[in-house]
Write a structure and sequence with these properties.
Length: 120
């Protein structure tokens, strides 16, 4: 039975990664800033989506497979902590204030929006 769980997580992660790649490229093309808007946007939107998925699962009974597909897979593949960490360290070399703003706003807004979603 665990093999099917792996398939759901894998399909979700693959879809999330592809969406992240294309959204990140699109934002990079329209942004000419040294601030990593693509990753920032992806992580904040991903946090919001995870909050919505969690809230729906909190109030309604769903098959566990849907959580593995949407929560673990899609949101896990879409958001990217490792890229955020790398970009923060890169910004630390050139602009410490921008690095701090990037990290604080990414984490702060992600948590804030999940909190709002769960309260509404």
């Amino acid at each position: 039975m665990t093999a099917i769980y792996d398939v759901y997580v894998g399909v979700g992660a693959a879809a999330g990664s592809l969406i992240r790649y294309h959204v990140g490229r699109w934002i990079s093309r329209i942004s000419e800033s040294s601030f990593p808007w693509g990753t920032w946007f992806i992580n904040v939107v991903g946090s919001c989506f995870l909050g919505l998925v969690f809230k729906d699962f909190w109030w309604h009974q769903h098959d566990t497979m849907w959580w593995l597909l949407l929560g673990t897979g899609l949101c896990g593949g879409f958001t990217t902590f490792s890229t955020m960490s790398y970009e923060t360290m890169h910004l630390m070399r050139t602009n410490r204030w921008m690095a701090a703003a990037y990290l604080a706003s990414s984490l702060g807004l992600g948590c804030f929006f999940i909190w709002v979603i769960l309260r509404v």
